[in-house]
TrEMBL record:
SMART domains: HTH_MERR. PROSITE patterns: HTH_MERR_2. It comes from Streptomyces sp. R21. InterPro entries: DNA-bd_dom_put_sf, MerR-type_HTH_dom, MerR_fam. This is MerR family transcriptional regulator. Residues 32-101 form the HTH merR-type domain. The keyword DNA-binding applies. GO terms for molecular function: DNA binding; DNA-binding transcription factor activity. Keywords: DNA-binding.
Length: 154
């Protein structure tokens, strides 16, 4: 006779900075990935993942009984967020500080929000600069297109 434990498993609460509703590579419920699988899923090198763990950006990676790193869906969510922070231009040191605040819990929500709001202001300023640059490029492209169409000697 087989006995099945039907006790529901309650996952740890998700931090607000972790993506909710993300489609994971293994939607069948399997929640363990090797470092090479995570590298393939994320596009990050295994060396980068080890370094993130070493500097405290991903300190919660579990290990198998043989010492192999085992990543979960929550780790994949965190890496998605970290990659977005990298795209904002946030320095690694600030990202590590943010990760430390996450580990400290809800008491740091205000400080985390301030960091994200400052980052957002910087991104908005960069977007405005890029839009201005795009307008200059468009103007130059139009100039050269018009010059090409204009008859010589006109």
């Amino acid at each position: 006779m087989t006995v099945i434990d039907s006790t529901p498993v309650t996952p740890p609460s998700l931090d607000a900075c972790v993506s909710v509703g993300t489609v994971h590579p293994r939607p069948d419920g399997q929640d363990r990935y090797t470092i090479s699988e995570v590298a393939a899923f994320t596009g990050l090198r295994a060396h980068t993942l080890r370094w993130y763990e070493q500097i405290g950006l991903m300190p919660h990676v579990t290990r198998s009984h043989t010492g192999q790193r085992l990543f979960g869906n929550r780790d994949l969510d965190w890496l998605t967020f970290v990659r977005k922070l990298r795209l904002t231009g946030m320095p690694i040191a600030d990202m590590v500080r943010f990760a430390e605040l996450v580990r400290q819990g809800e008491a740091t929500y205000d400080e985390r929000r301030e960091i994200l709001e400052q980052t957002r202001r910087e991104v908005v300023a960069r977007v405005a600069e890029l839009q201005d640059t795009l307008a200059v490029l468009d103007s130059k492209i139009d100039f050269y297109a018009d010059a090409r169409r204009a008859p010589e000697g006109a």
